[in-house]
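During the reporting period the student researcher (J.K.) took over the structure-prediction task from the postdoctoral fellow and processed the backlog of single-chain submissions. One of the processed entries is reproduced below for the supervisory committee.
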Amino acid sequence: MARITNLRSLPTIALTLTALVGTITSAGAQGAQPVSSDVHAANPSDPGLIELYSTPEPGQLGPMNWDGAIGDWAPGSFESRHWDDNDYTEVQFIGCTLSGSTPGKSVGVKLWQSIPFSLDKDMGTQTYYNCFTSLTASTRAWWNVHYEDGDKRYFTIPQINGSQTIRATVSVKRVYVDTALAD
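J.K. obtained the following structure tokens:
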């Protein structure tokens, strides 16, 4: 009979030890925190501050803006990173250059909507011209469509100078993706 009583008291002992160890750990975590030299009050007029978006409506995604660059993409060779989006997408290229024997005139940008467990949906192609005129010149295009069953988007470059088979690659100094129609 003594063995049964001892086995029944084991969970109680384990619970008591857990509580004691947790109390000791908690007491040690309440010590003084070092003061950081980075701590300062935010000034709302600082040029480096960005506006945070409010919580999206139920069933909607919040804005997902990002930027990056493209290095040596041939037609159909790569796809951009994927991002969450519901309806509006704007893609801007700044400073397009072409490597190859012909001068850069245009680049096609095709937007896709990723559909899980199915073929991705083609959302259309826009042709960018102006970004080839200088390293600071930009071209932007937007898509305002949506297909059901997918919230991720990405873009590809299907053609350079109007050709899908050109033996050249395009680089873009800066790429901006904006998913907020409001700006």
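The committee noted the following: The mean pLDDT is 75.
J.K. will present the remaining backlog at the next meeting.
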